[in-house]
Write a structure and sequence with these properties.
This protein has 364 residues and is mainly alpha-helical. The chain has 13 helices and two strands; from the N terminus they run ααααβααααααααβα. The protein has a single domain, classed as NCX, central ion-binding region (A middle domain of Talin 1, Up-down Bundle), CATH 1.20.1420.30. Strands 1-2 form a two-stranded antiparallel sheet. The longest helix has 35 residues.
Length: 364
């Protein structure tokens, strides 16, 4: 890798994004030109976050690298959901549910589907570790059912919502499962989450570049945090324009959650596609499934704490249409990962499910 030099775009852009955030924070009714500038810097901050996350990942190796990016991106999502719910009032009661479910559909169908298409572009089949991918998928399915499906059927409170005690239980269970996954991925069964060849052998560390120095990795970690703060802040600055555009177009309010998920998962998507292009599909799956898991396992506990200050209701239960999509996605993903090998057909099926979700989000 090249040494990080002063004019490197990924070092300058996060700082400029923070400056723009300071200028625009708290200002309502931004003109269209400023909205476009904020959107451009938001996209640039996302790209910078991907770059610095990859530097850190290259330093610490897999599976720690994908875990760093998954947690970092989820922090963005959680902070954005909580900040919007605190300031949005009753209209944001379903924002957490919409955003988390959109994140699940984007990761399990969009990121996995796109990665499979890219990973099979140079050959007929791409390989990964079925034990690691299967364990992650089982955890995601359990977390999604516990946090997003059960609230629709519980009877202690009217509407698709948990009682305080049920929310605390779901939060503790989600956090415990996520902590168990982290221990499994990084300590107990680390080899299950390393890239493999078509014959099932673990791939060695990439040899195209020397690992960055500790100093450079520390600098990239600091700039990653700056970029993530910029993404969170600029996304919140941009959110009124997004909500106004959604209302103006006559679209459902749930589209706001989809847009938020698309924004915060952009770094994950780019990093996963790059890994697939390097024939490291397991890294792509670590990013996709790890992000889906972190999106639930960190968001629900945070919402349980934030509910102390939230004045409006917190609706987490999915409707019938979304439950059907979730069930179909879990079944298809299970069939994709069970053999540890996949073709472009599986990638196309996942992308078709994502397209169905996005279409129904706009036209329920």
């Amino acid at each position: 890798m090249r040494r990080l030099t002063a004019p490197h775009w990924s070092a300058i852009l996060p700082v400029l994004a923070i400056v723009l955030l300071a200028i625009t924070w708290g200002r309502g009714g931004l003109p269209l030109a400023m909205v476009m500038i904020v959107a451009a810097f938001l996209g640039g901050a996302v790209l910078a976050a991907v770059h610095h996350a990859e530097v850190v990942a290259h330093r610490v190796g897999e599976p720690f690298g994908s875990l760093v990016l998954a947690v970092a991106v989820t922090v963005i999502e959680v902070a954005l959901i909580v900040s919007l719910m605190i300031s949005g009032g009753p209209e944001t009661a379903t924002l957490a549910r919409d955003t988390v479910f959109a994140a699940i559909m984007i990761t399990l169908n969009g990121i996995i589907g796109l990665s499979l298409l890219v990973g099979t572009s140079r050959g007929r089949v791409t390989a990964f570790n079925a034990e690691g991918a299967g364990g992650m998928l089982a955890t995601v399915a359990t977390l999604a059912t516990l946090s997003l499906v059960l609230p629709t059927f519980t009877t202690s409170r009217s509407g698709p919502a948990f009682t305080p005690a049920q929310l605390v239980f779901a939060a503790v269970a989600s956090l415990a499962l996520y902590a168990l996954f982290v221990v499994t991925q990084t300590i107990r069964h680390r080899d299950y989450f390393l890239p493999v060849t078509a014959e099932g052998k673990v791939l060695p560390e990439e040899e195209h570049a020397n690992p960055p120095t500790g100093r450079r990795a520390a600098g990239s970690l600091a700039l990653l945090l700056v970029a993530l703060v910029a993404v969170v802040g600029l996304a919140k600055v941009e959110s009124p324009a997004i909500e106004e555009a959604v209302r103006g177009a006559g679209l459902p309010q749930s589209v706001v959650g989809v847009v938020i998920a698309l924004l915060v998962l952009a770094p994950e998507t780019l990093a996963a596609v790059r890994a697939a292009r390097r024939e490291r599909m397991q890294t792509s799956l670590n990013l996709a499934l790890g992000s889906a898991m972190a999106s639930i396992g960190l968001t629900i506990p945070t919402l349980a704490v934030a509910s102390i200050w939230l004045t409006g209701p917190l609706s987490l239960g999915l409707g019938a249409t979304h439950m059907v999509l979730l069930a179909l996605t879990v079944v298809v993903a299970g069939l994709t990962v069970v053999h540890g090998r996949a073709t472009s057909l599986q990638g196309g099926v996942h992308l078709a499910l994502l397209a169905c979700f996005l279409f129904l989000a706009v036209s329920p």
